[in-house]
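Before relying on records like the one below, remember that each one covers exactly one chain. Contacts with other chains, cofactors or solvent are not represented anywhere in the record.
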Amino acid sequence: METIKVSTSQHVDIDYPVAGLGERIAARLIDLGVFLGLFFLFLMVGALLSISNNKTAMYVEGIIFAVGYVFYNLLCEIFMNGQCIGKRSMKIKVISLDGSPATMGQYFIRWLFRLVDFVLTFQVGGMICIVLSENKQRIGDIVAGTAVIKTVPRTDFGHIVFIPAEDGYTTVFAQAGQLNDSDIELIHEVITVYYQTGSAELLYTMSVKIAGKLGVRPPEEEQRLDFLSTVIKDYNHVTSAAD
């Protein structure tokens, strides 16, 4: 499975799976479906304007729709952190190849190359490039230095932390209460990504980091997953008791 290493705000590198052709086609079809719905809506409005013989309003309506269609992907990716409606629905997003968020310049380049990927090659150029390239990139991604990754769905924090403590549960690491919300979210995400990618290095990095915060010895290799899972349980127990 192709992955790209992304550095979190807490300086832990997580390998995210690269989005494949299927997810990207599905995201594009969702976007086209949105515009198809808007198109019929604009037709209805246009029909009403035609009845009222308001040609100026009809022209303005047509221009607004055309501009929105052309610049949709660029504006969405800039203001929605690398996603459009389709990408967000498919839980994929655009990032820079170094794992950092893409810049406005990168968004602009990959948007500009939609002409090559989709228009001039009749939708085929981009798809062929995604299939053949190492990081599943279309031509615009290669030129812009970006890739599209699968985002790990983040469980609602209330479901992670504020679940009722198990009856009779005994805390293993009482100092888990020293951790904060961001630590627990990151641990949960690391465990989720581990199940997707099998990255032992990721578990090691997270285990060492959390062990250092708790002031305990880092666990052995075969105990790292259990250690992180236990820390989450202890945090749940400690915070529930405090409440």
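Residues 11 and 18 are 20 Å apart (CA to CA).
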